[in-house]
Specification:
Helices cover 25% and strands 24% of the residues. By secondary structure, it is of the alpha+beta class.
Length: 584
């Protein structure tokens, strides 16, 4: 069994193809400095042209009033045009040719501005070529800090159909895992005390909207509740009860696509003259259209169309007004980048501390461009590393330490990276680890002592695993990792452990916003520190099958251990196999 993590760069050939695509054409790819310009800062934009593009000049066409920039040949038709300056060339080994660089500086813009722009290059043989196939980019310029509460968040991720039926009902028994098991909003409300007692202060709900599926990522309407889950009143009651307990509610939201059963798509499909036709990507008057990962039931939305975009923005704002505190945004790389500038502007008008984080299942270099557009992106790079080290035992402690150190250096401070060990689209961590609870406890200890909000997939704290791998004969069946939570089979000791982990994180703010630093590593064990304004904690983990003796930098007190046969005396620490500690 090997690991599966859903995404567009899951194979070497896909990754190599992406590199060639980025380097060979006229490319901007949202490369800018600074990533999140403030109202008093100029903005530098970068453009490259591959070896096949003999480029003589380049421009940025831009507006500040929310309209689309228009222009050609360096002359603006709507908005402004700024000529870019050649800034050097470099040799590209994979392409075996030179890449030309250009830059342009835009002046500081006033607070509240929605900048929208496109880049273009004049070429000798092809005329004017717009970067990235004509992509529109955008930024919301404002003094717009990250929500303070998000850094303190410990998030519980619930797949609604599989969490709790509520009202004393038993689970339904569908014949297939893709069927309906009967989880409800009322079922979540009834477990709020359980989650609050564990220490969770945020809940991420899978999509709550009407949908033909158990997972809900194919909505037929974005203004109502799936009847299987309950009513709008049930949602409002959940929000009110959660807020009374200090728990925030985060909704899963999918701007990129929805169900082919959506009324607007049905009209567009039936009538090529429908006003909804341009909400989608149809091929002329035919019934062929772009869809998500080739799934005909998931038509892709054209969010460059003003009405489609407004529908999506208005719907998000509607749910904030119903009490939602933020959004996990599905397939964030799908919508055109300037949509996210409008999304940030619109949602911030309704709720200034709304927390938005995206699903970007790409390379590490794909995350920084979302700085200033979203508050954060789910950390898929980290989940791969933690699974390689702790579930599969394929990384030793030196490699893990090297990854963690470079990961903290590379990713921008202005972009949060909520961490997780698994989710609804991949094998559960416990399954990948052969149901070895030692490995789960150790991985969770590291997850909870890194300076980003941790997310726990429902049932992980109870020992919930799965019955079969998500990969079957080359076909992905993620439903295997979506077993209904059997409350009567929970592991009490594991629940207590998660309670301690969460309590430790709440008590020591250096674990929320502190500075990570590697203290010591060898192939068997890793020691790192988390330092805040008032204290430093040390974390030591043993990835080997042997006892490991470690000398700590100072005399410490044991705060938490993943295995009971741990020994600490002053600075002398002995860790058992797959053991870990937090000391301070």
């Amino acid at each position: 069994m090997d690991d599966f993590i859903f995404g567009t760069l899951s194979t070497d050939s896909l990754r190599q193809g992406r590199v060639r695509e980025l380097h060979s054409g006229v490319t901007h790819a949202f490369q800018r400095d600074p990533l999140d310009p403030k109202p008093d800062q100029p903005l530098t934009l970068h453009l490259t042209a591959g070896p096949d593009y003999h480029t003589t000049k380049a421009w940025v066409y831009w507006t500040t009033d929310g309209t689309d920039p228009l222009g050609s040949g360096g002359i603006a038709g709507n908005g402004l045009a700024t000529e870019m300056t050649p800034s050097g060339a470099e040799w590209d080994l994979p392409l075996w040719g030179y890449i030309q660089h250009f830059t342009a500086e835009l002046p500081p813009l006033r607070a509240g501005t929605r900048l929208r722009y496109r880049c273009a290059a004049e070429t000798v043989c092809r005329g004017e070529v717009f970067a990235d196939k004509g992509t529109y980019y955008g930024l919301y310029i404002d003094h717009d800090p990250l929500p303070e509460w998000a850094s303190q968040a410990v998030v519980y991720h619930i797949l609604l159909d599989r969490f709790n039926p509520g009202s004393g009902r038993s689970w339904q028994t569908p014949t297939e895992m893709s069927g309906f098991f009967g989880g409800t909003l009322q079922g979540v409300t009834e477990k709020l005390d359980y989650l609050a007692d564990l220490g969770f202060n945020a809940i991420w709900l899978s999509p709550i909207f009407p949908s033909p599926s158990h997972h809900g990522y194919d909505a037929t309407d974005l203004y109502t509740i799936e009847p299987r889950y309950g009513t709008l009143q049930d949602f409002q009651n959940l929000v009110a009860q959660a807020h009374q307990r200090g728990i925030r509610i985060i909704l899963d939201y999918v701007p990129n696509h929805w169900s082919s059963g959506h009324a607007t798509f049905q009209q567009a499909l039936a009538n090529p003259s429908s006003p909804y036709r341009d909400w989608y990507f149809f091929e002329g008057s035919s019934q062929k259209y772009d869809c998500f990962f080739g799934v005909a039931g998931l038509p892709k939305l054209n969010l460059r169309h003003p009405d489609a975009r407004q529908y999506m923005l208005d719907s998000a704002c509607f749910w904030l007004k119903q009490g939602a505190d933020g959004f996990r945004l599905d397939y964030t790389v799908g919508p055109t980048p300037d949509f996210w500038a409008d999304f940030r502007w619109a949602t911030r008008q309704v709720k200034a501390d709304c927390w938005t984080f995206g699903e970007v299942v790409e390379s590490a270099m794909s995350l920084p461009p979302f700085t200033g557009l979203l508050d954060g992106c789910l950390d898929f790079m980290l989940v791969e590393a933690l699974r390689e080290a702790f579930a599969f035992n394929r990384w030793d402690a030196c490699r893990l330490g090297s990854f963690l150190s470079r990961h903290q250096q590379y990713q921008p401070a202005g972009l949060m990276r909520p961490s997780f060990l698994d989710n609804h689209d991949m094998n559960r961590f416990l399954w990948t680890a052969g149901d070895d609870l030692k490995r789960l406890r150790l991985a969770a200890l590291v997850q909870f002592t890194l300076p980003q909000p941790p997310i726990v997939y429902y049932g992980t704290e109870t020992g919930l695993s799965q019955k079969a791998d998500c990969m079957h004969a080359g076909r992905v069946i993620p439903e295997e990792s979506r077993q209904p939570l059997r409350w009567d089979k929970a592991n009490p000791a594991l629940q207590v452990y998660y309670h301690k982990l969460i309590g430790l994180r709440h008590e020591h703010t250096c674990l929320q916003t502190g500075t990570w630093k590697q203290v010591w590593a060898d192939p068997k064990a890793l020691v790192y520190s988390m330092t805040g304004p008032k204290e430093t904690l040390y974390v030591a983990v043993n990835l080997s099958s042997d006892d490991v003796k470690i000398t700590l930098p100072q005399t410490c007190k044991l705060l938490l251990h993943s295995e009971s046969d741990t020994s600490l005396s002053g600075t002398a620490l002995t860790l058992p196999p797959l053991g870990g500690v937090v000391v301070g």
